[in-house]
Amino acid sequence: MVAAADLEAAERVVAELREACAARLDEVAAAMEAEMRAGLREEGGSKIKMIVSFVDNLPTGNEEGVFYALDLGGTNFRVLRVQLAGKDRRVAKRDSKEVSIPPHLMSGNASELFGFIASALAKYVAAAGEGDGRQRELGFTFSFPVRQTSIASGTLIKWTKAFSVDDAVGEDVVAELQTAMEKQGVDMRVAALINDTVGTLAAGRYNDEDVVVGVILGTGSNAAYVEEASAIPKLKLEGGELPKSGNMVINTEWGNFYSPCLPITEYDQALDEESLNPGEQIFEKLVSGMYLGEIVRRVLLKIASQSSILGDVSHTNLKTRFSLRYFYVSLLFRELPVPYGKKKRELMLIKQTLLLRLAFRTPDISAMHHDGTPDLRVVAEKLADNLRVRDTSLDTRKMVVEICDIVTGRSARLAAAGIVGILRKIGRAAPGDERRSVVAIDGGLFEHYAEFRKRLEATLVELLGEEASRLVEVKLTKDGSGLGAALIAAAHSQY
After folding, report:
1. Of 196, 268, 364, 371, which one is the catalytic site residue?
2. Given a cut of 90, is residue 491 above it in pLDDT?
3. Which residue among the candidates 46, 56, 71, 78 is catalytic per the annotation?
4. 78 is annotated as an active-site residue
5. Tens of pLDDT along 187-229?
6. Cα angle value 64/441/463 (rounded, 5°)
7. Tens of pLDDT along 81-111?
8. Which phi-psi region, left, alpha or beta, contains residue 129 (left: φ > 0; alpha: ψ -120 to 50)?
9. Whether residue 455 lies in the annotated active site
10. pTM above 0.85, yes or no
11. Strand 211-217 and strand 437-442: pairing?
């Protein structure tokens, strides 16, 4: 039985959380639109980078031929082969292979890393048995920060995700891959360098010509959209000719969006201060699946410090901070002597992986939020298994579900406000606009978390109004980083 005083103390924390998470969504959407306009005017003019992707043609469905894709974004990479057969048959055939990158190559040199990738690609192409003499074309999804200079070139700004191949920084990653493929005898041209958000937009457009926005809502979060080239002042400042299509895909990098109107709580502030990148990626830290479980854990820890409804904190994992994981990640990038440094990085990568498995994750939040059992048995199991919080009362478990609802609801509503900001920027879903506007969304947060998806869709109606929202649709669009890359290669084919 929970003491009344303890329950009241916990309820105060939850009430304060609900109030702190309440967002002025119209202001958020307006601020997002304003930041986008500033980012399009000049480099560094906005918190969000508004990167010109140089993708000026999106697939139409008429594309034919065999195209390849390379998806490099973590400790594994994928190679894909896609056969396109025009309007009637669309994707006639598609297959792929995933390859693990040996840990020592993640901290070696560029020629070794890209050589390994090109070798795997060569074997994959050879197994396909193609020999019609036509040079193949490839879309390259490279999920690391680059400064793109054309549709098929971009210099690496920095590595993330446990990579530290120092001699690749500042170099053109497409040129590195092209050189490695030539050494392996692979007759293939990199037709496009993209990120997964742009790929999601392309994959969505391939099946629906009304797709104008692509969004990632998973471990991370980002958005891309189709902009009129004439509305991009910094494109003109660069002295280049406007594309014949009249359009240009913009990679917003909205994860770094910040505005005083964002509902930032004490838990968000503490999480940000303990992160590897304090003061950066604030919007992503409020929205993406990477952080939702950690925010809930921090709320539960505060409740545990002010009441006994979660038991003795010292006997739980409530103090196992997300910052430990950041600590181990940071060690991966320290300047360490070689070969000791390489061994050290590999050990730290193993530790990081183990800690990630112990974390209170978004799938756990989703499972508790969707618990339909009368006694909230799933909530009890997740608390016991992940946080070692046992013997909770039904009232306590109901409170945990409420916390999940508040944190997830804020995430979904902010994501919806960001989408509305984009739609308003391009004059969509406005009074009198009769065009259908489709938003292609990829990522586990949107795909697997039903309550998140429902809240996002409801918020779009709330912000746009019943009438305008009827012409706005969100669609799950999977594998933008693979299929989307091949489709963009096809749309920019030399043939």
Report:
1. 196
2. yes
3. 78
4. yes
5. 999 999 999 999 999 999 999 999 999 999 998 999 999 999 9
6. 135
7. 999 998 878 899 999 999 999 989 998 899 9
8. left
9. no
10. yes
11. parallel
CATH assignment of 55-194, among 3.20.20.140, 3.40.50.80, 3.10.20.30, 3.30.420.40: 3.30.420.40
Active-site residue, from 107, 143, 221, 275: 143
The fold for domain 1-53+208-320+358-478 equals Hexokinase; domain 1 (3.40.367)
462-475 pLDDT, tens digit per residue, is 999 999 999 999 99
Query: For the chain, where do the domains classified as CATH 3.30.420.40 start and end?
Result: 55-194
Which of 461, 488, 481 is CA-nearest to residue 202?
488
Cis upstream peptide for 233 (omega within 30°): no
Helix (H) or strand (E) holding 462, with range, is helix 450-464
Which regions of the chain carry the CATH code 3.40.367.20? Answer: 1-53+208-320+358-478
Residues with Cβ within 8 Å of residue 5, at least 6 apart in sequence: 307
Q: Which residues contact 41 (CB under 8 A, 6 or more apart)?
A: 233, 234
H or E element in which residue 8 lies: helix 4-21
Distance CA 209, CA 165 (A): 40
Q: Does the annotation count 143 as an active-site position? A: yes
The Cα angle at residue 196 between residues 193 and 202, in degrees rounded to 5: 80
Q: Please measure the distance between the N-terminal and C-terminal CA atoms of the chain and give it in whole angstroms.
A: 73
Alpha helices in 51-207 (DSSP H): 86-89, 110-128, 173-183, 196-207
Reference 487, options 255, 253, 249, 227; nearest CA is 249
